[in-house]
Specification:
about 210 residues, mainly alpha, 8 helices, about 85% helix
């Protein structure tokens, strides 16, 4: 069943990316939420090893779905989408710390913190009135990536590996999205953003089964 769902997710994601490039708003309205709904099904219908982890991952996926719906209309609802994803990342942070608590490992924290600083330096000069929301969002997603890595270091399992890879891919997706929106748009941006984004969310969902 998980293989069938994963194939459907892949096909839906391909159609979603295609819709972006052919500028088909109607197809985007179908395939962007459909891809996330299928990913959410993986996290919901299969047995979880850690129920609390499952709950917060599912909540994070649901808020990501809401964020996706808002960002289909970025000119009108970008801030709402940003808030939805912000809450989603807080859910992911909770999932990554609910069973292993919060740890501090310098060789994990400082490289991720440096990435966050570089992220801020490259985006804030171009984000105008969105400076404060963007700063808060970047801090939260950096913490999300940090906590995923700390959990992997503390509990090295197949599930924590998947979640850590997912966190890194999510950070890459958001970095490219920000560069494309606030600095200079480039043709391959949507492919990079959505490929990394959907893969990250799929990895989070599958990590529930293997956590």
């Amino acid at each position: 069943m998980i293989y069938l769902l994963s194939i459907l997710i892949l096909l839906s994601a391909i159609f979603c990316i295609r819709a972006k490039y052919i500028k088909s708003h109607n197809q985007l309205l179908i395939f962007k939420p459909l891809t996330m709904i299928l990913i959410i099904l993986i996290a919901i219908i299969f047995p979880a090893i850690e129920i609390q982890y499952k709950i917060f991952i599912v909540l994070g996926l649901l808020f990501s779905l809401f964020g996706d719906m808002f960002l289909i209309y970025p000119e009108q609802h970008f801030k709402k989408g940003l808030i939805a994803f912000l809450i989603g990342h807080i859910c992911y942070i909770t999932a990554f710390t609910v069973s292993s608590s919060v740890h501090f490992t310098s060789w994990i924290f400082f490289p991720i913190a440096i990435v966050g600083v570089l992220y801020l330096r490259n985006i804030l000069p171009y984000s105008g009135k969105m400076n404060i929301p963007i700063t808060i969002y970047i801090i939260i997603i950096v913490i999300m990536g940090w906590m995923a890595m700390e959990r992997l270091n503390y509990i090295p399992t197949s599930g924590t590996i998947l979640a850590a890879i997912g966190a890194v891919l999510f950070m890459i997706s958001d970095a490219v999205l920000a560069l494309n929106k606030f600095r200079k748009p480039f043709i391959s941006a949507e492919l990079i953003i959505l490929t990394n984004y959907f893969t990250a969310q799929w990895l989070f969902a599958v990590s529930v089964i293997m956590a």
